[in-house]
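Narrative of accomplishments. A recurring question from our advisory board has been how the design workflow behaves on a single, concrete structure rather than in aggregate. To address it, we present the structure tokens for one chain from the evaluation set, followed by the sequence designed for it. No filtering or post-editing was applied between the two.
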């Protein structure tokens, strides 16, 4: 009798998981969150939350976009290369246009256009040419990565326009990938991080 009850209970759990698949994801999230809190008591403090959000916000946005692709039963291997291309196009265009508020808006618009164009190219390869998504996006990722290197062969440069936007006025600050830039012209280089803090540059 006990074995029959166990089998019936297991079958019921399996049916519920298939009917409500987010239950398992929620349980895993709660378990991992609890483990983090136990191992790092400061994990739920505002300073830690702010630091994690500013650090992982680009990754969160990236995975949000990938989620819809996976839910559609496909995969996109070019999404990282697209992000790289969009970033360097935005930085270069803003620098070229002078770094004014209008230039920043134009650079953001151009970056969005580049992202849409890359997605459109992937859509043609997969939807129109009927190529396998994993093959098509792997091929386009090579193209997009090459274009990103062509636009910005070497990392670095001045991005003072970020500071003009007033990162200090934002409660979460800038994502670390955007806020870290060097302001030259002083006795020592200074690195401006999220929240407007200064860190002496040892290099």
């Amino acid at each position: 009798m006990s074995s029959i009850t166990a089998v019936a209970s297991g079958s019921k759990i399996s049916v519920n998981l298939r009917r409500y698949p987010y239950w398992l994801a929620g349980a895993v999230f709660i378990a991992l969150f609890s483990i983090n809190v136990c191992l790092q008591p400061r994990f739920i403090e505002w300073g830690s939350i702010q630091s994690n959000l500013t650090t992982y916000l680009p990754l969160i946005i990236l995975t949000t976009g990938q989620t819809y692709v996976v839910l559609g039963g496909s995969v996109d291997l070019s999404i990282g290369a697209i992000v790289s291309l969009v970033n360097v196009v935005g930085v270069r265009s803003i620098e070229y246009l002078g770094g004014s508020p209008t230039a920043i808006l134009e650079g953001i618009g151009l970056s969005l256009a580049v992202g849409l164009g890359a997605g459109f190219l992937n859509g043609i390869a997969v939807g129109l040419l009927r190529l396998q998504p994993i093959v098509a996006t792997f091929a386009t990722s090579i193209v997009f990565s090459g274009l990103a290197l062509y636009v910005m062969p070497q990392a670095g440069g001045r991005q003072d326009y970020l500071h003009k936007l007033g990162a200090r006025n934002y409660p979460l600050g800038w994502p670390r990938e955007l806020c870290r830039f060097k302001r030259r012209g002083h006795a020592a280089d200074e690195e401006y991080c999220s929240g407007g803090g200064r860190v002496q540059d040892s290099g």
